[in-house]
Amino acid sequence: MPLSGPAGGRRRRQAAGLAAAAVCSALLAWGGPGAAQGAPSPSAGVPRLDWSPCAPGSPYDCATAKVPLDHADPAGRSIDLAVIRRKAADGPRRMGTLFMNPGGPGGPGTVQIPQNYDSIPAELRERFDIVSWDPRGIGNSTAVNCFDTTRDAEAWGRTKPAGFPVDAKERTAWIDAYEDLGRLCEKRDPDLLRHVSTADTARDLDLLRQAVGEAQLNYFGVSYGTILGATYANMFPGKVRAMVLDSNIAPSAWTNGNRPDARTPTFLRMGSDRSAAATLDRFLALCGSAGTGRCAFSAGSPEATRAKYDQLMQRLREHPVDSWTYARTVADTVSSLYIVDPGWTDLARRLQDLWQGKVPKPPVFPPPPPVANPNPYLGDEQAMAVWCGDSPNPRNPTAYRLLAEDSARRAGDAGPYWTWAGEPCATWPAQAADGYSGPWNERTAHPVLVIGTTYDPSTSYAGSEAMAKELADARLLTHDGYGHTALFNNASGCVKTWESRYLLDGTLPPAGTVCRPDRQPFA
Q1: What are phi and psi of 130, to 5 degrees?
Q2: Which of 45, 54, 359, 432 is deepest in the core (most CB within 10 A)?
Q3: Looking at 447-518, which runs of residues are DSSP E strands?
Q4: What is the three-class DSSP state of 452?
């Protein structure tokens, strides 16, 4: 499943200062440091967090939280949650704990938050302990893992086409591969498959809140982390002190409007196909305007660069460059649009290599973060267990061919990519035992800040607009920029200013506020 938070191993971070926003704001009645005063002592059922350094010399502390597999049966089987913390840099001025979820589903917070720590606004790093965790079923926590060995998982991966299927033979291979994976998972741990829902994780989050001694929750969620945040906000509305939701999945899209018989996959309900197509178009236009000195794939103008891309895709359909097929290249293009710097520049180089008939150079990864296990197993089945168990998708595998063709007519190459990303749910064997499908308009103790980026290849801006409307009390901040999540793109001082002001003292941006990147791509 491709809706993941960014893997920090694929990207560098551009330092960006906070720019003061010269606009008026509304200061809400707010619990500042006092919001944590009188926080209850951990009670029965609340996990104990015994912190210790994640690795020798590491600035991060790690702990393991034991929580019930089934929250309705707290005396039954327990599972482990891997938790990570970096203490507030300015200890004497510490305000409390800020929980962060990096997206997914399937994003391991114990890895991705350390990888992207510098993207968190400096004021928040100074004033809050930053805490994240691998949600149940994921990474270093008790994880969904349907293979005996990594070699077995890799062998399974080779049975399906890269990217998405493009002909009858590949469609059969794709459908069969994911049907086989579902059977393997059902045999391995069927109880776990039914208890990794977003609602289960929201209940875990509330136990973690109590475990660190906070009376109310401070939370920052991106991508899938937004639907987790919205779920928490509506299950525990009185426990929300501050909540930032960046690059949103609309609750109505996630739940299919509470209709279990879905006719379209979740990603198409989210508008991921159209949003990715619009973002790709901006990439090509800006690349074409920049010239080859700043964008390797430029053909000298937006129109010529778009035509060059279309010609390359057609050529790859007929003549792949080594293992770089048409579908693999489309998948790489969409995922590379997530992070503008350096993702867009690197993508342009790979496309130019393919244009010249050369195999692109493999990416250079930065060193792993200083944690105990920076490379946990993250197989497809981990995201599928959450996504397919929670969100309705068409159950007939043969329906996806026509859905992909329809999406291609409105979204070009991105359409089949996002359509087939939902097909694994067609044969997934488990449904959430105790999920949450609404209502979504419970009034929270404090308002929620919703951030949406206009050109996002994964979660559409319309999804953020819908989130702000569907929640009872939320304010939308528009990032008129590019990439998936404003946080991980680290591109707008204006956005960082409002994130900090809101989380520190509850100041919301005025309605209709628009922030822009500090610099444009290829500038």
Answers
A1: -95, 120
A2: 54
A3: 448-455, 474-482, 507-508, 514-515
A4: strand
CA distances from 500 to 12, 19, 87, 473, 508 (A): 22, 11, 17, 19, 10
Which DSSP symbol is given to 129?
Answer: E
Residue 83, both tokens: 């938790």
Say how far apart CA 383 and CA 390 lie, in whole Å: 11
Helix (H, G, I), strand (E, B) or coil at 320: coil
Number of continuous H segments (helices) and E segments (strands) in the chain: 19, 12
The Cβ-side half-sphere exposure at 352, using a 13 Å CA radius, reads 19
Helix (H) or strand (E) holding 63: strand 61-68
Give the whole-angstrom CA distance, residue 67 versus residue 59: 26
Strand order across the beta sheet in which 128-133 lies = 52-53, 61-68, 78-86, 128-133, 96-101, 217-222, 240-246, 448-455, 474-482, 514-515
Tell me the whole-structure pTM to 2 decimals.
Answer: 0.93
